[in-house]
Specification:
Largest sheet: 4 strands, parallel
Strand content: 5-15%
Shape: globular
Distance between the termini: 24 Å
Number of helices: 4
Length: 121
Amino acid sequence: MNIHSVYETNSSYWNTKGNDHLRAIVLPFYGAFITEEKCQLFGDVSGKKMLEIGCGNGQSLQYQGERQASELWGMDISEKQIEKAKQHLTAYGLSAKWICSPMEEECSIPVDYFDYVYSIY
C-alpha cells in the first residue's frame, strides 16, 4: 500500500465520520475519567504559542484560547475538520493559523517556534 493512499483513506474517514468520535478526547478531557484540571499537564498557557496536531473540530484549541494562549495553530489531515475548527473558533471569538496536511509530511511549520506542540487524539 502506498503512503498517499493511506493519507487519502485517513482524510476521507475524518471528512465523513470525524465528529462521531470527538467527545471525551478534547481538552479539558483526556478520556472519560481524566481531565487537564486534575493532571495540569499544560499548566499556565497564557502568552504561549500552541500547535495542536490532529486538531479535529477545534474544541481543544478553544480550551487553550480561553486559557489565554497567545497564538493557536491547528493541523489536521481533513479539510472538513479544519473548516469545522475555523467555524468553531470564530463562534467563540478566537482565531488560529491552519495547516491541512498529514503530520508526517513537511508542511512549513516554523522550527523552534512553539511553546507547546501536542496531540490529544
